[in-house]
Structure formats: structure tokens, C-alpha cells
Amino acid sequence: MGERGALKHGSPxxxxxxxxxxxxxxxxxWEWYSDHGCQRIDxxxxxxxxxxxxxxxxxxxxxxxxxxxxxxxxxEY
Length: 77
What we know:
Mean pLDDT: 89
Order of helices and strands: HEEH
Helix content: 25-40%
Largest sheet: 2 strands, antiparallel
Number of domains: 1
Oligomer: single chain
Strand order of the largest sheet: 1-2
Radius of gyration: 17 Å
């Protein structure tokens, strides 16, 4: 997934990249982590800069999760 290893987990850019990689729809957000857990920050509470970071991650992601195909069904005759 691009350079995700260099991104801070939960950052707007990280979340945008992950959303695109896993085929999720565009939905700006990020996650704030503390000793008390994780809080999701949705777009209505994000700054213009944070949304731009999400966009960078979402539109810059070139990888795509390859979901495994289901087991083939064997027809009995």
C-alpha cells in the first residue's frame, strides 16, 4: 500500500490510504489514539488541512486488496 509504513497510524492520510486500499467509499475521517482508547474524528470536525491529508492518502493509493476467490464448486454428475 504505497508508503503506508511511513504514515502515522490513524492519521488522515493513513485512513484515506486504507479506505482506498480496502475498496471502501470516500469518507474523510481520522482516528485519535490516547491511553484511554481511540476516538474517530469525522469530516464535519476536520480542518481543511486534515481533509487535504485524507485526500492525499485516498487519491494517492495505488494498491488494492485482492480478496480471495471462494472455493470452486464441484459439480456432481
